[in-house]
Amino acid sequence: MSHTEEMVLAEIHRLTPRELRLWVREGWVRPVISETGPLFDDLDVARIRLLCDLRKDMALPSTAVPVVLTLIDRLHQTRRDLFSLLEVIEDQPDSVRHAVVARLRARFGENAPGGPTDESQRRGHPGEETWGKGG
Prior knowledge:
Structural class: mainly alpha
Order of helices and strands: EHHEEHHHHH
Strand order of the largest sheet: 1-3-2
Oligomer: single chain
Strand content: 5-15%
Largest sheet: 3 strands, antiparallel
Number of helices: 7
């Protein structure tokens, strides 16, 4: 869903127009620029909420914001990459899946994905049958 600047400001009460425009200028939020002005998608709005938390609640200095945003973006990309890898592995024959799990356990021991300490198992993330139950 697209949100206009006015919609974002109405939705996030602690945000000022000046702050929003500054964050767009800084590149911390990257809306689509239309003929009528910036259009923010749901991900942009979530990022704006995060920026409000960082700047207002945590008093993060503006010089640190790009570093934090870059780290968060990289973390999210890594998570997407790992889920893509998991999908590819799940499409493999049982023998390949078992070999991957065996190598992970040999390398990481009990901390391997699918091991007893794997948080994703308790939350039912994709791949539960493959990783947690040996496939």
